[in-house]
Design a protein that fits this description.
This protein is mainly α. Helices cover 72% and strands 0% of the residues.
């Protein structure tokens, strides 16, 4: 069972959990929360994230981007009795579950909620899967920013309120930028491999120096945005507690300057977790 569990890349799932929590906190400012809606949002978000993880692992392996011995290769692929066929069936089961949850959201709430979930599902599958393969076309960063950073908290909010307001448009952006920074840290690590396999990541297209600068901006800009959002009256002043994580952010900026890319994605995920927890807690208290 451990191989099946680890093949989901469970270490990455807190990214979605924090996005969904943020959507619930923003909704909670204007309405009483529906616990069933919260559970459905959480289940759908996690399933879509798992679909992206499993099929990314599968297609990177099938297309030769990942090789035996690479650290990112999941355990099912390394098992001679299971391999790629088992991983494909695993992903297909979650894909069917994701379709079912998307339909349930549409029936229980409204068509817009279902459409957003469907867009997220398609983006998750086609992140690596041909013929679209967003990752190979250099669209991975904007796709993750929109799907996980914006649409996930937005749909969670809509499930609870059936309405839109300025909070749900602006509030998720700092956390969405850090989610994108995690992927950019991954792309910096895989820079030479992406060039070799014709994957048009941002860094592969515009060069390693530009990729480093983009990563550093994605890490620093969220803190700058907090100041503007506070002055605009969109966030409570107590959100400044998030700056407790800024020292670690500066450490990551220095690592990128030194081309220390090994483990940079997981280190950025830790920053996202610290920033996200403080960000959400500050809004609950504030």
């Amino acid at each position: 069972m451990r191989k099946w569990w680890l093949s989901l890349r469970p270490f990455s799932l807190p990214i979605s959990i924090l996005s969904i929590m943020l959507g619930l906190v923003i909704a909670g400012k204007t309405t009483y929360l529906d616990p069933i809606g919260a559970l459905l949002a959480l289940a759908t978000g996690l399933v879509l994230h798992i679909i992206a993880n499993v099929f990314n692992s599968y297609f990177d392996w099938k297309l030769g981007h990942d090789q035996s011995g690479d650290s990112q290769v999941v355990p099912l692929l390394m098992d001679p009795n299971l391999g790629a066929k088992a991983l494909w069936a695993y992903g297909l089961a979650f894909l069917i579950l994701g379709i079912g949850l998307t339909i349930i959201l549409g029936l229980r709430y409204n068509p817009l909620v279902m459409i957003i979930a469907l867009v997220g599902l398609l983006n998750a599958y086609f992140y690596t899967a041909p013929p679209i393969a967003y990752k190979k076309r250099g669209l991975g960063l904007p796709l993750v920013f929109i799907s996980m950073g914006i649409l996930m908290p937005l749909n969670t909010f809509l499930i609870q309120t059936m309405d839109l307001n300025y909070q749900i448009i602006a509030n998720p952006v700092p956390l969405a930028l850090l989610i994108t920074a995690i992927l950019q840290g991954n792309e910096l690590r895989d820079y030479h491999s992406d060039l070799q396999h014709g994957i048009n990541s941002f860094s592969a297209i515009y060069g390693l120096k530009a990729g480093i600068k983009l990563y550093q901006l994605l890490v620093i800009v969220p803190y700058i945005m907090l100041i503007f959002l506070i002055f605009a009256g969109l966030l409570p002043v107590f959100v400044l507690v998030v700056f407790l994580s800024s020292r670690y952010a500066l450490t990551l900026v220095q690592r990128a300057d030194q081309h220390d890319f090994k483990g940079l994605d997981s280190a950025t995920a830790k920053l996202h977790a610290a920033f996200g927890l403080l960000y959400i807690l500050a809004q609950v208290i504030g």
